[in-house]
């Protein structure tokens, strides 16, 4: 059973870095379709990689065989990750995202830790998404949203697998005094956190 195994980003995450600037290779659809693809895929596949990692660890991934750290970014795997990336725009995922965003007062960090389910510690773990809080930087943060996989909580730190930092076991989100900080994502600068359950990533 997956929940009896400790998640290790060096083994259970992808060994390659989040690919950016790679839009879909489909043809047709005109300029508007290409612009849509650039929005969905152009800034990377962090959500698709996070969803794939969760599904792989739970034994539900299709088209991917663990250990993920041994895989190369082949055209076939890239196509699978694009498919998972697109799932964040499915009605089920959007509903789960909006529901959580509202429940946490717009992604307020003090409402996250008590609700967070990490991978390997039970059913329906979360993708942790950095996105907008309700303020003037809403659109800025929305366009630069990022997704990671939380796998351990220790003394105000949530350790995560980050597609931008493959194999890194020391990457964590710091929570303190009702705020969070993770690299360039800081609650005091208008960022919020949304928790998307694994069940919303499945078809």
Concise structural overview:
By secondary structure, the protein is of the alpha+beta class.
Secondary structure layout plus pairing:
Layout: H1 9-12, H2 30-41, H3 46-57, H4 75-86, H5 91-103, E1 126-132, H6 138-143, E2 146-154, E3 157-161, E4 172-176, E5 179-182, E6 185-186, E7 191-197
Descriptive notes:
The chain is globular, with a radius of gyration of 16 Å. The two termini are about 20 Å apart. The protein has about 200 residues and is of the alpha+beta class. The protein is built from six helices and seven strands; from the N terminus they run αααααβαββββββ. About 30% of the residues lie in helices and about 20% in strands.
Pick out its properties.
seven-stranded antiparallel sheet, 19% strand, 6 helices, alpha+beta, 203 residues
**Percentage beta strand:** 15-25%
Number of H- or I-type helical stretches = 6
End-to-end distance: 22 Å
Please state how the strands of the largest beta sheet are arranged side by side. Answer: 6-5-4-3-2-1-7
Mean pLDDT: 86
Q: What coarse outline follows from CA principal-axis ratios?
A: globular
- Helical coverage, percent range: 25-40%
What is the SS-derived class?
alpha+beta
Radius of gyration: 16 Å
Q: What is the N-to-C succession of helices and strands?
A: HHHHHEHEEEEEE
For the secondary structure, the number of strands is 7
What about the largest sheet?
7 strands, antiparallel
Spans of 5+ residues with little confidence (pLDDT < 50)? 26-33
């Amino acid at each position: 059973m997956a929940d009896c195994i400790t998640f290790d980003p060096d083994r259970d995450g992808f060994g390659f870095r989040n690919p950016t600037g790679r839009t879909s290779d489909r043809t047709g659809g005109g300029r508007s379709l290409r612009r849509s693809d650039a929005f969905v895929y152009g800034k990377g596949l962090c959500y698709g990689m996070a969803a794939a990692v969760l599904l792989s660890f739970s034994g539900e991934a299709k088209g991917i065989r663990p250990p993920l750290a041994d895989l190369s970014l082949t055209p076939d795997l890239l196509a699978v990750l694009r498919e998972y990336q697109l799932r964040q725009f499915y009605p089920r995922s959007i509903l789960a995202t909006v529901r959580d965003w509202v429940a946490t007062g717009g992604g307020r960090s003090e409402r996250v830790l008590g609700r967070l389910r990490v991978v390997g510690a039970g059913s329906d773990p979360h993708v942790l998404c950095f996105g907008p809080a309700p303020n003037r930087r809403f659109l800025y943060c929305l366009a630069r949203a990022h997704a990671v996989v939380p796998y351990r909580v220790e003394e105000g730190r949530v350790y995560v697998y980050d597609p931008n930092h493959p194999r890194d076991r020391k990457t964590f989100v710091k929570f303190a005094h009702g705020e969070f900080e993770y690299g360039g994502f800081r609650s005091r600068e208008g960022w919020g956190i949304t928790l998307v359950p694994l069940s919303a990533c499945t078809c």
